[in-house]
Amino acid sequence: MYWAYIREFTTKIIIKKANMKFILNSLVALLIFYSACSENPKADPNLIKEVEEWHQKRISRLKEETGWLNLAGLFWLKEGENKIGSAKDNDIIFPSGPEYIGSLFLKDSVVTIKMISGQNIMNNGVSAPEMILKDDYSDSTTFLQAGSLKWNIIRRTKGFGIRLRDLNAVLLKTFDGIERFPISDEWRIKAKFEKYDPPKKIMIPDIVGTIDEEESPGAAVFAVGDKTFRIDALDAGGNRIWFIFADQTSGIESYGAGRFLYTDKPDSNGIVILDFNKAYNPPCVFTKFATCPLPPKDNYLKLKITAGEKMWGENH
Fold it and tell me: Which of 254, 282, 263 is nearest to 191 (CA)?
């Protein structure tokens, strides 16, 4: 009698616990479902898939050897000799690596390097004691490497510089992604492309304090609510154009120096698709060693674009 009572009592407890577990699991599932709905209130599943795939490729590119997470230095060359290495008496002081590597010589817009004898500096796996260095605007940029440090010459309006990378940079290990606004159909906008004939001259400032004159092939004109906006495009080569823009989220929810957006050139009806869900941060949000362009004056929009990437990091 006693054991029958115990079995009945135990069975009731097990059933009660099983029911409670079912209820809790159901509540969790509902919370996840409603959370997803609230995060993507007006997003077509196909759009979500497209943007997520684009975003994953974006993150992968950031982590690549030529990405932006491994930058370790930006050094501008002076005319003539520039001694390089990690020792403090060099003209250009690397944060680590060999104390004395050699000298870079800048003359008539040509950069050559002459290594100190015995230094194991490699170019595509081959020792490079002396050579002309092709910059990043050349057909085949020259890359040099010593251990985990890899560098090349960049050419900008400011002059010629060294872009230094550390292939073992801490940020590569600690980077945990970029927060974004919810994906929304509302921010995938059809815009009319108004061609400039001839192309419009626009001034593009950059983060290092120089200004470049560029040609804009036209502007994308679009409506949000009852207001019309326009942003000047830049030619990105091939069938692509791109936009450097800032909006009323800049400096608050998104990066203060603006964001980038690429899209295809206009179709036969003069329409371009502005998918602001793919608006992304320039490299300068991740590092002080990049040379990012800033929005031209006509691309500061009096509009809050709650789509694309948000601010990254604490100091940007």
Answer: 263
Which of 105, 135, 168 marks a domain boundary?
Answer: 168
C-alpha dihedral over 235, 240, 244, 247, to 10 degrees?
A: 140
Of residues 247, 238, 226, the one with CA closest to residue 299: 247
Question: Of 217, 222, 213, which is closest to residue 197 (Cα–Cα)?
Answer: 217
For residue 17, what are the domain limits? 1-30
The answer to whether residue 2 scores a pLDDT higher than 50 is no
Q: What is the domain count for the chain?
A: 3
CA dihedral 154, 155, 157, 158 (to 10 degrees): 50
4 contacts: CB under 8 Å, gap ≥ 6? none
**Token output for 59:** 């993150």
State yes or no: pLDDT of 234 exceeds 50: yes
Q: Tens digit of pLDDT for each residue in 110-154? A: 999 999 988 889 898 888 789 999 999 998 999 999 999 999 999
